[in-house]
């Protein structure tokens, strides 16, 4: 019984070390905090806020920040990072709230399968 316990502990420790060794430093991403509705062409032909800001209703306001806020609150959008023609989903929706419509430097871990960044921190550029 002791041998099984010792082998189990060695196995768990080796898995822990392997997981720790696989940890990498957060990667830095640069881009604009936007909303998924505009950035992913849900209602935009240009992957921008252009169409919403030109709409006759004026509900989206007059700036990219007001457009993103409108799309998130009223159209089910999520905060995303738009960077060089690419859109990354953000797992933490609280951190980007203070940077909507701004150019930022975001640090985090990218899950390439889901194109989602696990956000560590964000700062304005």
Proportion of residues in helical segments: 25-40%
Protein structure class:
alpha+beta
Total strand count, please? 5
Q: From N to C, what is the helix and strand string?
A: HEHHHEEEE
Largest sheet report? 5 strands, mixed, barrel
Q: What amount of the residues lies in strands? A: 25-35%
Distance from N terminus to C terminus (CA atoms, Å) equals 59 Å
pLDDT averaged residue by residue: 80
| Widest beta sheet: strand line-up | 1-2-3-5-4
Radius of gyration: 20 Å
Give the count of helical stretches.
4
List the uncertain runs: none
Indicate the overall shape.
elongated
Number of domains: 1
Molecular structure report:
The protein is an alpha+beta fold and 125 residues long. It is 33% helix and 30% strand. It has helices at 2-22, 36-39, 50-54, 64-74, and strands at residues 27-35, 79-83, 86-90, 103-111, 116-124. Strands 1-2-3-5-4 form a 5-stranded mixed barrel.
List the helices and strands and how they pair.
Layout: H1 2-22, E1 27-35, H2 36-39, H3 50-54, H4 64-74, E2 79-83, E3 86-90, E4 103-111, E5 116-124
Parallel strand pairs: 3-5
Antiparallel strand pairs: 1-2, 1-4, 2-3, 4-5
């Amino acid at each position: 019984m002791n041998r099984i316990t010792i082998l189990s502990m060695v196995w768990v420790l080796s898995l822990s070390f392997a997981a720790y060794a696989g940890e990498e430093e957060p990667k830095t991403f640069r881009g604009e905090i936007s909303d998924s509705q505009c950035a992913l062409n849900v209602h935009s032909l240009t992957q921008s806020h252009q169409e919403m800001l030109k709409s006759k209703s004026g509900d989206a306001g007059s700036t990219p920040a007001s457009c993103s806020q409108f799309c998130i609150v009223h159209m089910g959008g999520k905060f995303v990072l738009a960077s060089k023609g690419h859109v990354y989903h953000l797992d933490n929706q609280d951190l980007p709230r203070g940077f909507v419509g701004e150019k930022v430097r975001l640090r985090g871990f990218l899950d390439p399968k889901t194109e989602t960044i696990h956000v560590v921190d964000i700062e304005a550029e």
